[in-house]
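I'd like us to work through together how a protein chain folds, taking it slowly. To get us started, please write out a protein record for me. Go ahead whenever you are ready, and we will take it from there:
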Amino acid sequence: MANTLKGWMAPNTVTADPNDKILVLESTGKADINKVYEEMLAEDTGLRRETIVHVVTLYERICARLLMNGWQLNTGLFYAVPRFLGVIAGGKWDALKNSIYVAFTQDKVLREEIRKTSVHILGEKKDVMYIIETEDRQTGLKDGRMTPGRNFFVRGANLKVTGTDESVGITLTDSKGTVTKLDADLISINKPSELTLLLPADLADGEYTLTVTTQYVSNHVELKVPRSVSVAVHVGETGGSTGDDDRPVIE
């Protein structure tokens, strides 16, 4: 089956060359594990949903267990290897200062799908607003992880937080829908191409949606109606669940 990705050309905010463009993905939507189950059932394998859920859950559990016991894991879909972060003081591991993360790279299955994928350029958007990257300044990780009480970097285009509308600002929305709006003085760097945020020290572990809302469009013009862009982020060891996960616990 052929695949298609769509994107808009937009100015590359990393360079000063006005002719330097990048392609920004036109998202089809967000897919979670339940979407994966639906697609697997649609393949008409004859398997019941509970069987699929059980097998996928077991697969995830075994992969995680292998990685956390030092295996370099090659599944065909991805290659993964555990890494350590932080300086080891006094020859001892300190869970408050040191951490483990897993580095993933695409493997054969994804490379084959990439070869079968065509890219359709929809046109050019000069003033498109987008987030291309985040970085936890404490760990250097760019996977959406945040460290409470530390700086968090957001890079993209037209992100500068400005305007008088009450919705303007930066919010963090947890999985229960609780919204935390950052005070303006927690935005230490506020540029069109990059933001540096000082995160609240009391952020609980969990998944969040970071949303930037602004009336900025250029140095001398503000939008009458604010616009927003969001990115998925998280605190602690979390990810992959929507809160409605019906997968069984497999010990």
About this structure: Residues 239-251 have pLDDT under 50 and may be disordered. The two ends are 37 Å apart (CA to CA). The helical segments are 33-42, 49-67, 108-115.
